[in-house]
């Protein structure tokens, strides 16, 4: 990659994540920038940003870094059309099922919060 990628500050603006978070993702091998500038600064390609956004969406659902890494690896296998896609499809199915379960739990908690707010508001009526 040449030095035309996005610098870390630009990526933080687009993703809403902090610089330390992006550096951590790089250090643990979750999302590694595609390049470096001549001065050694991280440079992110659009594909890197897409991966970061996937991670950002998984984080509030409580997925571990390992689960995120497994998901990204599986997505890469399927996107590239590699022959070893059976394991990738299984990983995606597991992540999808887990995401659905976590989503439904969040919906229930949200409904409880709305109900609670209605009760609190009703105390002042």
UniProtKB/TrEMBL annotation:
Residues annotated as domain HTH merR-type: 5-74
Name of the protein: Transcriptional regulator
A Pfam family it matches: MerR_1
Listed GO MF terms: DNA binding; DNA-binding transcription factor activity
Keyword terms, alphabetized: DNA-binding
InterPro entries in the record: DNA-bd_dom_put_sf, MerR-type_HTH_dom, MerR_fam
Residue stretches spanning the membrane: none
Protein origin, superkingdom: Bacteria
